Amino acid sequence: MYEISHERFEQLASEALSTLPEDLSSQIENLVIVVEDVAPGRPLYGLYEGVPLTKRGPTSYSAVMPDRITLYQTTICGACGSEAEVATQIRKTVLHEVAHHFGVSDERLSELGWA
């Protein structure tokens, strides 16, 4: 397990998000990323909660709270032995959860090697 401050973890998450290609990042809408300790009841690195862009419509999506990607710091750090490994796992998790924001399923992410 590699221990890292909450602030540094958030910084690495922000850096991971900034690595997205501009043509994708410019399409992200109404999304926040938060960091929590662990997922309740199950070991997850991250979780997307919201309405994917592919399911939104002008009449069915208005006045809603932002979609949310939660990164689980203790779970991620527990699987890593260095800051570089933490950064790599954060990036992989951010990409995986942002893919859900774009409507990509877990099955498709598995096919692509991102599950």
Characterize the structure shown:
By secondary structure, the chain is of the alpha+beta class. It has one domain (6-54, 61-112): Zincin-like, CATH 3.30.2010.20. The chain contains 5 helices and 3 strands. A 3-stranded mixed sheet has the order 1-3-2. The protein is globular and about 45 Å long.
Taking all residues together, what is the mean pLDDT? Answer: 88
CATH classification, class level: Alpha Beta
DSSP helix fraction: 40-55%
Q: Which shape, going by the Cα principal axes?
A: globular
Number of domains: 1
| Computed Rg | 14 Å
Sketch the major β-sheet.
3 strands, mixed
Q: Give the beta-strand count.
A: 3
The secondary-structure class comes to alpha+beta
Instruction: Provide the succession of SSEs.
Output: HHEEEHHH
Termini, distance in Å? 21 Å
Low-confidence parts lasting 5 or more residues at pLDDT below 50? none
State the assembly state of the protein chains: single chain
Secondary structure topology:
Layout: H1 6-18, H2 22-25, E1 31-36, E2 46-49, E3 67-72, H3 73-78, H4 83-101, H5 106-112
Parallel strand pairs: 1-3
Antiparallel strand pairs: 2-3
Helix pairs in contact: 1-4
Concise summary:
With 115 residues, this protein is α+β, with helices and mostly antiparallel strands. The chain is built from 5 helices and 3 strands; from the N terminus they run ααβββααα.
